[in-house]
TrEMBL record:
This is non-specific serine/threonine protein kinase. Belongs to the protein kinase superfamily. CAMK Ser/Thr protein kinase family. SNF1 subfamily. Its cofactor is Mn(2+). Residues 310-334 form the NAF domain. It comes from Salvia divinorum. The gene is CIPK11. The keyword Nucleotide-binding applies. SUPFAM superfamilies: Protein kinase-like (PK-like).
Length: 441
């Protein structure tokens, strides 16, 4: 995240007075004993973004703070946040903003992101159009990132200068994956159907309200971005939104006279209203205008984790949020339940093996009133005296220091089961009820 780019694409840097009133913390009072939070970078309808410093490493980060109470009745925002966290945790590329980790309390979610110091590309181009060489550099970095996303089955669907950031070295970073789609969102016809994006940057096939190819839609938006960088204005623009849509649908635009013939030809392929004949990224990399000075960037790929592997590995941020209904994470912090409920969870600042030892100690203390059968390395089945209930208990690692302990009633007396968990097992497990952490470092 950048100093200009806040919780939404419209967020801007605050005044000095606003920045001075933000929640600066001393190291001993740092957020989760890990981050010193500094000035406010931006704010939106449901989130604020702060600059922060990692106490251990001194690294600058951006922390997006989301108040869960504002999300409970907004399914769209909840889905966007889940999608953004899920996707960003899977992507590793030099030209994509990195998600470091996600932290949560009962009332807030904290998304810790790479701090991108240079601000939005939009702010820079607003001062005047770029030379073709500079625009080409940024465009090549954009295409490198987008190509990588597509190789992982991720389609951004909201590419625009406001979502493109610049670091201290002047290199481009793609951000804001809240409207992105994954390959599994494609319908049986092989196309995406959700209408989304920013009006001036949407492809004509989206306006036609038919299915569309996610990769070709991103190529169109990249073409609009390149036009803005080299011309200094939008190719399709009109005060009347419907008139602008008509221009987009018909492909009515003119390149300014100062553009080189090669670039004008390149735009004819980028902004082709026919998505089937529109240039692909592979074809783009063979184009004479694009290829000048281009070299492929190596990415730190971690790929898309299979469902079976995901269950066995560290739980990621998407899993943490998905543990609860409507992004209410309170069940993960309390760990109690009443007799009518069948599942309990809590966090513990322990190793999985230690938690299992603690459970075994409880079983031994029950002197035959409780039986334990090991089902996997960090999982057991518990059976009450005379078979009055059967439950499973599993321990999942979150980070090097934290685990989630989950217990489920499989059969039998709900009251006896709740009593075992609330009165016997839960109290012996050391935990930090105020903290839930997941990271992708």
């Amino acid at each position: 995240m950048s100093e200009n780019h806040g919780a939404s694409s419209t967020a801007r840097a605050p005044s000095l007075a606003t920045a001075a009133s933000t929640m600066a913390l001393s190291p001993e009072n740092a957020l989760f004993n890990k981050y010193e939070v500094g000035k406010l970078l931006g704010c939106g309808a449901f989130a604020k973004v702060y600059h922060a410093r990692d106490v251990a490493t001194g690294r600058s980060v951006a922390i997006k703070v989301i108040n869960k109470s504002r999300l409970n009745n907004n399914v769209t925002l909840m889905n966007n946040i889940k999608r953004e966290i899920s996707i960003m945790s899977r992507l590793r590329h030099p030209n994509i903003v990195k998600l470091y980790e996600v932290l949560a309390t009962k009332s807030k979610i904290f998304i810790v992101l790479e701090f991108v110091k240079g601000g939005e590309l939009f702010a820079k181009v607003a001062k005047g159009r770029f030379s073709e060489d500079l625009a080409r550099k940024y465009f090549q970095q954009l295409i490198s990132a987008v190509s990588y996303c597509h190789s992982k089955g991720v389609y951004h669907r909201d590419l625009k200068p406001e979502n493109l950031l610049l670091d201290e070295n002047g290199d481009l970073k793609v951000s804001d994956f809240g409207l992105s789609a994954l390959g599994d969102h494609v319908r049986s016809d092989g196309l995406l159907h959700t209408l989304c994006g920013t009006p001036a940057y949407v492809a004509p096939e989206i306006l036609a309200k038919r299915g569309y190819n996610g990769a070709k839609v991103d190529v169109w938006s990249c073409g609009i971005v390149l036009f803005v960088l080299t011309a200094g204005y939008l190719p399709f623009n009109d005060p009347n939104l419907m008139n602008m849509y008509k221009k987009i649908y018909k492909g009515e635009f003119r390149c300014p006279k100062w553009m080189s013939p090669d670039l004008k030809r390149f735009f004819s392929r980028l902004l082709d209203t026919n998505s089937e004949s529109r240039i692909s990224i592979d074809e783009m990399k063979l184009d004479s205008w694009f290829r000048k000075g281009f070299s492929e960037v190596k990415s730190e790929s971690i790929g898309l984790v299979k469902e079976e592997e995901r269950i066995l590995q560290n739980l990621n941020a998407f899993d943490i949020i998905s543990f609860s209904r409507g992004l209410d994470l309170s069940g993960l912090f309390d760990g109690k339940f009443v007799a009518s409920e069948d599942v309990g969870r809590l966090t513990a600042e322990e190793q999985p093996e230690t938690v299992m030892e603690q459970v075994e100690e409880v079983v031994k203390a029950e002197s035959g009133r409780l039986q334990l059968r090991k089902t996997k390395e960090c999982g057991v089945e518990l059976e009450g005296q005379n078979g009055d209930f059967v439950a499973s208990l599993d321990v999942y690692r979150l980070t090097d220091r934290l685990v989630v302990v989950e217990v489920k009633r499989k059969a039998g007396d709900a009251t006896a089961f709740a009593g075992l968990w609330n009165d016997k097992i839960r109290p012996v497990i050391q935990r930090r009820p105020e903290v839930l952490v997941s990271g992708s470092n």
